[in-house]
Structure formats: structure tokens, C-alpha cells
Design brief:
Elements lengths: L1 H43 L11 H8 L4 E8 L6 E4 L6 H5 L5 E4 L5 E7 L2 H45 L9 H32 L10 H12 L8 E8 L2 H8 L1 H19 L5 E5 L4 E6 L4 H22 L5 E8 L5 H16 L6 E3 L6 H19 L2 E10 L7 E9 L5 E2 L1 H10 L3 H19 L6 E4 L2 H4 L2 H13 L1 H4 L2 E6 H6 L1 H13 L3 E7 L5 H8 L3 E4 L1 H4 L6 H16 L3 E4 L5 H9 L4 E2 L8 E2 L1
Parallel strand pairs: 8-9, 11-13, 13-14, 14-15, 15-16, 16-17, 17-18
Antiparallel strand pairs: 1-2, 1-4, 3-4, 5-7, 5-8, 6-7, 10-11, 10-18, 10-19, 11-12
Helix pairs in contact: 1-4, 7-8, 8-9, 10-11, 11-12
């Protein structure tokens, strides 16, 4: 449409230019005619033979003929030329198209007369002609503007109709219509692609990459919506499922096995909940899953919990794990804060972890959750300490070369009511929360020392794990040193294993512990070693007797040449510092053979032996 507006302006400009051209054409036509008339007047008045004009009166006699617009007389008898000019007769056309004056010299050559005449008839004719032409041009310009305006409006209306009415059979602009439809199709295609990308991005933001389930952000959003006061949701259920063996699998079998474990649990949960409508599944942390069931009553939630336990038990038997997952359930009540519901569900989860393997528990009542939960766990840990309700397992570390002596790593399992197993990681975490971790560590060490007195034949060595909280507790370190000094024979057969990550976080406290172990004749080991180049800094500072290579480096060593080079470097550096190297998480014979060729000192894993009661 901008082109039409430009065309309209160009048309008006052409009309204006045409008017100017006509005016100048009239000038060029009429000026010769006026000049001819002036010459005829000169002859008629016989100005060449006229006597000398010496005063104004004589000039006025000549002007009385009313033929002159301008006359100027010059001769030798006049001190200055006589001039007459009629201002009333110098009209618009005289300015627009001035006529050059005619000069007449007397026959005697003594007088010079310059003049211009006016011709009323000729000027009237010129005025009429120009008026007609200008009027025609104005009318033409107006008609052009009207035609252009109407054409513009008609085209605009037709195009709007062309765009809006796709069913119309009459299409005056078929090519335009085709192009519009093509552009519309391309626009819709681009819009659909953009919407698809936005949907995919939104799904990625709210999706857990490992399991494909919704993540914590989506969980929080849905829980908040249900709890909003405007929502009249009834019988909604929240369930939190904790994968209890994730840390154990990561440390013993590698992170790939841990990922597979999480994916399998996610598949079990999805398989069970797919048969129930309105159930959303989320992965809200590394080891925790959540279910939100809309319009579900307690009996249906318990039915899901029982089916999940049955599936978990089957998975446990197949994979020979100590447990799979625990399930805490609570109702969602509108108007409460998310923290209240989560704390109540967490309390149910804590109860489930103390009631048996892969158990579930339902918590409906609203206590002071934090205080009630801590007191619950305090009672459980007190009961464990009082009854010494723990069981020791051992797993052998097989020596590969003669210069290393193997030992038995000891694992602790805690027993609840009816001798049901309580997840070890949970007990340690809750013991730290209620400030009872030192007492729990002391119980374990006293139990191990007592067992060693009866079982040790002087040649057996025992490996014990110390938690990060114990390493940083000065009272515990003093107590441990006194215990080892009292039992020098047993101290020499003990190897204390500590996590590399814990040691690296507080190097000063770690060095103090390692120095204390050397003073008492006890050996030390760094577990999960080799997560980065920074691991070698611990060699220099701590000088351990053993390092245990992290299982994640071993899990794919038969296929990963980079891991092989890194492990070979660890072995070489360790041997130069008189440190023995043990590989954890050995599950395949090929792994063991590769490590033997690298001159590994010892191996540990399910290929060698599974943990068994001490």
C-alpha cells in the first residue's frame, strides 16, 4: 500500500509540473505576439518621426493614448530621461511573463524612446486560457486523488477479504492469495516448531535426566498448588520413597551400578503407579522419590505401598542387596505449609526405616515434627547402644602379590525391633543429627575389639571405617588413642579406612588422626581414592599405608583406556611412596586380570567374596 501512496504523490507532482510547463509555454507563445504589437504601435504613432519631447506635458500627450505600460524618453535636450510607468496595469502576468521593451530611435538619431505596451484583450485571453487549463488540471488532480483513494480502499477491502475468508470462491488476487496462504503455512509451521521447542525446554527444566521423571522443581510446584487455600482437593496423598542402598552401591560397585539401581527403582514405582489415576511420580533428590496422588484415599495409598514393597523384595532377592527402598506416606491437607506436609511424611519414612526391610509407614497426626522425629531416632539409637543391637559383617581383601598381606573389611548393620534391619546410612545420619554419632562409633569399635580378642589368631587383620564426624571430633580421637594404647596387640592388626572426600575437606584434622594412628602402631587407608588429580596431594600430607581405588574407576576399566592409564599412574606413584594399592568393586574376572597386569596389590569385590557375618 505504500507504493500506492507514492504513486498518488507522484501523480499530484506531475500535475503541478504540468501547470508550470503550461504557464511557461504560454509565456513563450504570447511574448512574440506582444513584441509584434509593440512594433506596430511604434509605426502607427510614427515615433521615429516624432518631434523631440522636452517636458512632461509632451510625454503626457503621448501617454494619453493609453497604450503604454512603460515609456522612457531620452534626448540631448533633457537633463534626465523622462519616464512614465502605470503601476495599475502591471498585473500578475506581467510579473510571470514579462515582455522586453521596444526601442525606437528617431530618424535624426537625437531621441531614444523605450516602451512596452499593454493589450487588454491579449492578457484577458491569456488569463482565460490559463484559468481553463488550471481548472482542468485541478479537476484532473482531484479525480486522480479520488480514484486512487477508492482504489486503495477497494484493494485494502479485497485483501482483507482474501485473508480472512478462506472459503470464498471469488479471489481477485489469486497470486497474492497463494503467496499469503504459503506465508501463513510457513508461519504456522514456524510457530508450531517454536511451541514444540518451548514445550521441550519446559519439560527439560522439570525433568530428571537420569530417570525421565519430573524433578524437585515440578514436585514443589504441584505440592504448593494442592496446598493452596483456594484448592478444595480432598484425599490427596504424599509418599516419599528413599533408595537406601545408593551410597553403598556407589562405593562398592561404582556410580554406573548406582545409576542403574536408581533407574530400576524408578521403573518399579512407575510400573506400580501406572494402574492408578491421578498419580504423579517425581525424583526429588539423589536417593529420594516422591508420589503425589490426587483424589486418593488412605486405603488406596496403602495398597500401592504394599505392591511397592513386594516389588522391592523381589528386586532385592534377585540382586542380593540388603534392602532396596523405604516408603513414608502422609495425607495432604489444604491450607498447610509444604514444610509441614514434608516433615510429617519424613516422620513416616523414619518409622518405616525402623520397622523392617523395605517397609512402609503411614503418618497422619500433626506433631511437632522436628522434636518428635528427633526424639524417635534418639530412642532408637539409645536402644541400639543399650542392647548393642548391631551385627558385624566382613568382606575379604585378597592380596595379589606376596609383599602385601590381605585383611577383612568390617561392615556394620543395625537391628531394630524383631531383629529387623535398619539402614546403616540412615542410622549414622540421624545419630549425627541428635548428637549421638560419637557414642555410636564407640559402640562399634568396642564391639570390633571384643570380637578381635576372641577371633584373632595373630595373623588376621581387620579394616574399620571411620565417619567424617568422628574424624573431626577431638574427644573421639582422644578416646580412640587411649583404646588403641590399651590394646597394642589388637591395634597392630587394625586398619582404619577413611573417605578421601572427608579427609580432603579438613586436612589439618585428618593429618592429626593419621599421626595418632602411626603412634599407636595402627595402619591407615584412604577409601574412594582417585576422584581427581588433587588425590595425590593426600599422599604427600597423610602418607597412608593403603589406598583403595574408587569403584567408579574400576567398573569400566576393561573398556576405558583413560581409566587404565590413570589407575596405572596411581599404582606407580603409590609404590614409589611405599603404599599398597587395593581395587574396590571387582565384579568381573577380566577386571581382575587387567589389574593384576598393572601390579595391583589387592582386590576386593563380589567376584572375590560377598560380605558375610563375622
Amino acid at each position: 500500500m505504500n507504493d500506492y501512496r507514492k504513486s498518488l504523490w507522484v501523480s499530484n507532482l506531475i500535475v503541478l509540473l504540468f501547470a508550470v510547463l503550461v504557464t511557461f509555454a504560454a509565456k513563450f507563445i504570447f511574448n512574440p505576439l506582444l513584441s509584434q504589437q509593440q512594433e506596430l504601435i511604434a509605426k502607427k504613432l510614427n515615433l521615429q518621426d516624432s518631434p523631440l519631447i522636452t517636458n512632461v506635458e509632451q510625454l503626457n500627450e503621448l501617454v494619453e493614448h493609453q497604450l503604454f505600460d512603460f515609456i522612457k524618453v531620452s534626448n540631448s535636450n533633457l537633463p534626465a530621461p523622462l519616464v512614465h510607468e502605470d503601476p495599475e496595469l502591471r498585473r500578475f502576468f506581467s510579473y510571470l511573463s514579462p515582455v522586453s521593451s521596444t526601442t525606437v530611435i528617431s530618424n535624426s538619431g537625437s531621441q531614444l524612446i523605450e516602451f512596452t505596451i499593454h493589450n487588454r484583450q491579449l492578457f484577458a485571453l491569456l488569463t482565460q486560457i490559463l484559468f481553463v487549463i488550471y481548472t482542468a488540471l485541478i479537476i484532473s488532480a482531484s479525480l486522480i486523488n479520488i480514484v486512487y483513494y477508492r482504489l486503495y480502499r477497494n484493494i485494502e477491502t479485497s485483501l482483507v477479504h482474501e485473508i480472512s475468508d478462506e472459503q470464498s470462491s471469488s479471489r481477485p488476487f489469486s497470486k497474492v492469495s497463494e503467496q499469503l496462504h504459503e506465508q501463513k503455512r510457513l508461519f504456522h509451521k514456524a510457530l508450531q516448531n517454536q511451541e514444540k521447542q518451548i514445550t521441550q525446554l519446559a519439560r527439560q527444566v522439570n525433568m530428571d535426566n537420569l530417570t525421565g521423571l519430573s524433578n524437585r522443581h515440578a514436585f514443589r510446584k504441584e505440592l504448593t498448588e494442592i496446598l493452596s487455600e483456594d484448592n478444595e482437593q480432598k484425599h490427596a496423598i504424599l509418599s516419599i520413597i528413599r533408595a537406601s542402598e545408593l551410597n553403598t552401591i556407589n562405593s562398592q560397585r561404582g556410580f554406573q551400578q548406582g545409576d542403574d539401581y536408581i533407574v530400576n527403582i524408578a521403573n518399579i514405582i512407575t510400573q506400580v503407579t501406572d494402574r492408578f489415576s491421578g498419580v504423579s511420580v517425581f525424583r526429588i533428590s539423589g536417593s529420594d522419590f516422591a508420589l503425589i496422588a490426587r483424589e486418593m484415599n488412605v486405603s488406596e495409598a496403602q495398597r500401592i505401598a504394599k505392591e511397592l514393597k513386594s516389588k522391592f523384595d523381589q528386586y532385592q532377592n534377585v540382586n542380593q542387596l540388603e534392602s532396596i527402598a523405604y516408603n513414608g506416606i502422609s495425607s495432604i491437607i489444604s491450607g498447610q505449609l509444604p514444610e509441614q506436609v514434608l516433615a510429617r511424611t519424613d516422620m513416616a519414612l523414619a518409622k518405616a526405616q525402623t520397622e523392617g526391610i523395605n517397609s512402609w509407614a503411614f503418618e497422619q497426626h500433626d506433631h511437632d515434627e522436628n522434636q518428635y522425629g528427633q526424639q524417635h531416632w534418639r530412642n532408637i539409637i539409645d536402644s541400639i547402644i543399650e542392647k548393642k543391637a548391631l551385627m558385624l559383617l566382613h568382606q575379604p581383601i585378597q592380596a595379589i602379590h606376596r609383599n602385601m598381606k590381605g585383611y577383612q573389611e568390617i561392615f556394620t548393620r543395625f537391628l531394630g525391633e524383631n531383629n529387623s534391619m535398619i539402614p546403616t546410612e540412615t542410622v549414622f545420619a540421624m545419630a549425627q543429627r541428635v548428637d549421638m554419632s560419637v557414642k555410636l562409633e564407640q559402640l562399634i569399635l568396642e564391639t570390633v575389639v571384643s570380637q578381635c580378642r576372641h577371633k584373632s589368631d595373630g595373623s588376621t587383620r581387620w579394616g574399620l571405617n571411620i565417619t567424617g564426624s568422628a574424624i573431626q571430633n577431638n574427644n573421639f580421637i582422644v578416646w580412640l588413642e587411649r583404646l588403641l594404647l590399651r590394646e597394642p596387640n589388637i591395634a597392630g592388626s587394625l586398619i582404619f579406612e577413611m573417605q578421601e572426600e572427608v579427609l580432603d575437606c579438613n586436612l589439618v584434622a585428618s593429618k592429626r588422626v593419621f599421626d595418632m594412628l602411626k603412634r599407636t602402631g595402627t595402619r591407615s587407608a584412604i577409601c574412594n581414592f582417585g576422584k581427581g588429580i588433587g588425590s595425590f596431594r593426600l599422599f604427600k600430607e597423610l602418607k597412608p599405608d593403603f589406598v583403595k581405588i574408587d569403584a567408579s574407576l574400576i567398573s569400566n576399566i576393561e573398556r576405558d583406556s583413560a581409566n587404565q592409564q590413570f589407575v596405572r599412574m596411581i599404582i606407580d606413584v603409590a609404590h614409589r611412596m611405599d603404599c599398597r594399592v587395593i581395587a574396590e568393586g571387582i565384579e568381573h574376572l577380566e577386571q581382575k586380570q587387567i589389574l593384576e597386569n598393572m601390579y595391583i596389590d589387592g582386590v576386593q569385590g563380589f567376584l572375590i567374596a560377598r560380605p558375610s557375618p563375622l
